[in-house]
Predict the structure of Enoyl-CoA delta isomerase 1, mitochondrial.
Amino acid sequence: MAAVLRRGVKLISSGSSQLLSGGCKHGRTSTLCISSSRPSSSKINVELDSSTGIAVMRFQNPLVNSLNLDFLTEICISLEKLELDKSCRGVILTSAQPKIFSAGLDILEMYGKNPEHYAAFWKSVQEIWLKLYGYSKITIAAINGSSPAGGCLIALTADYRIMADNPRYTIGLNETQLGIVAPFWFKDTMLNTVGHRTAELSLQFGLMYTPSDALKINLVDLVVPEEQVLSTATETMTKFLAIPGHAREISKSMMRKPVVDRLLSCRDADIKNFVSFISKDSIQKSLGQYLSMLKQKKS
Ligand SMILES: CCCCC/C=C\C/C=C\C=C\CC(=O)SCCNC(=O)CCNC(=O)[C@H](O)C(C)(C)COP(=O)(O)OP(=O)(O)OC[C@H]1O[C@@H](n2cnc3c(N)ncnc32)[C@H](O)[C@@H]1OP(=O)(O)O
């Protein structure tokens, strides 16, 4: 159940199984409706401040916010609800997990499973990208940890990226390092942000950038001390909110629609392509080796 934190602010824990359809109003505070059962299974929490219209969505999928099917679905449903909620004007995306924004797509969803599973998973990856890249409201990524591959993609869909100034955190599309290939819409999102030449080098090498290097190539817009990431995101959101909404929204759509439309025109083919690629023995072998490397890193 939503709990009032301070005047006009509600904490919304949302497990995908707990979300009900449609938003609802509770007195002066507009929030999402959820049932009160099993709130501990929530992989995200959302705080919507109805006095400012700013929602903060925190990812909390232990250990590293890897994007599995359930988590992606939950994020998508919450984003949809916020988009429909008139009291919400912008969403800040951040992490509740220490040191990690998101570890990207959950590799276990792409390893050792059957084609039907791969297809359902890829559909949910498409959904989250379509929802975020085409999002009508303002989104700001408050990147308070490492953000490889799919984690970087989530950040790239935001209207503005603010990263914590910690050289241990890195961000980038590192797919080639896993022996896999970022699909065209990952590539387009990167290209629209950093330009052609930088995207080309970045994708081929699977480069991961420290915050200061990410700033140099415009992969992020601002680097601030870690403890200021959220407050700076809120300040930045306020600047966005000062712009007439319809004009900003149309401008955003004008910039992004061609890329969104490109995926919309070939969703099924893109899923087929993914399933056939990820099912190859050589790709499964690469992913298996990468998973072993992640485990060995600890010992
Ligand atoms: C030509 C046609 C092309 C068509 C398109 C086809 C294909 C495209 C396909 C896919 C695109 C994929 C995009 C992706 O997002 S792939 C995922 C990339 N992610 C990574 O490389 C991140 C790997 N992880 C790390 O670098 C570190 O774990 C991290 C920096 C995130 C955290 O480091 P830390 O030291 O704190 O923690 P660890 O001990 O390493 O990890 C803890 C625990 O979590 C497991 N884990 C980490 N990342 C993932 C992940 N992405 N998926 C699943 N599991 C992950 C890790 O193995 C540890 O597990 P355990 O040992 O505790 O069991």
